Amino acid sequence: MAPKKRPETQKPPDIAVRLKSKSVPSTRELEPATKKLYALNPGSSRRCDSCCLLAELANLQVPSQSSIIRALHQQKLGRVTWPSLQQGLQKSFLQSLASYQVFQRVAPFDRRATSLAWHPTHPSTLAVGSKGGDILLWNFGIKDKPTFIKGIGAGGSITALKFNQLNTNQFFACSMEGTTRLQDFKGNILRVFTSSNSCNVWFCSLDVSTKSQVLVTGDNVGHVILLNTDGKELWTLKMHKKKVTHVALNPCCDWLLATASIDQTVKIWDLRQIRGKTSFLYSLPHRHPVNSACFSPDGARLLTTDQYSEIRVYSASQWDCPVSLICHPHRHFQHLTPIKATWHPRYNLIVVGRYPDPNLKSCIPYELRTIDVFDGSSGKMMCQLYDPGYSGITSLNEFNPMGDTLASAMGYHILIWSQEEAGPQKEHELG
To answer: What is the pTM of this model?
Structure first.
């Protein structure tokens, strides 16, 4: 069935280009600062005339803490509906997002970053894996040096990372080394779940359900393996014709599994009813190979990113037909970590890095490599982040569980975006 594309009713917003400064400008400072900033309008010419937009942003009144508390009280009394309250909070967040800038960075690897995962309970800690198999545990909220685990180098690429919810000093990882394993940040391998024992087969994706105590992992030849977290294999099935780039368990119904593949399909499975490779609930055909398929935090939607120019949103009400199709440049390149769109943990927002493609009609001259934020329902562009000091392609972008800090992987660099007003940008060095 051909995907339904919702017509765009408004032009996407302009890009606010941030100059390096020692602090994030306040709302009062934004209006005069517009004279020093320039912006790019994706729907018009390369030079900008969008200082007016920045001035308008400066004049917007962000709700204060007291007004948010008042709104919550009104909602409790039944005077404000929950969707209306959510929309108000999301609007407030988007206004604050326009002032985000890079305030910390680290470049610890000799090869590009390939995966990242936020700590589930500590909002300033994340783990990052590299193409050389190195793994970094970085708490950017303290001055101590990050924890660094050295990899094997060539052939050791960390393809997926996930913290162990039951012991956050441990993490699950799969790699081109040919294993899916449980490891701690001292470098000890605690359990090997899968091992291919072959340089021709490796593991590309994983997810874990703490509630059901299962782990699922996919390899580069189309197999998906389900195991108990104690290491016992439940089954191995060839679910796709080619590499399984992503596996995701639904956060609310962890028996629901989504798998994405470069065979140009995403499939949805019921783990309670799997009998073979044809026992999927839905098969979602795409025009190009697919990099990822992520369930929303409430489990009601599925976000897919292909290897060319489409981002799709599917809904639980009709899994086999996208409710939103977003045209967005993020084409695949051999020496670039595949670009993957992700959900904001609290709002119906999608974040993804842009890789401008001159072959697309929507491309304009001198288009910037921004981080784009879309509304998950309408597919409308809501905001774009850009720092001229870090103008590379950000392949991985993910908000922390609190939803107030964004981590980006840009080649060798890991960037932290925030409203933080703690002084000049900080750069951590590994000694």
So the answer is: 0.81
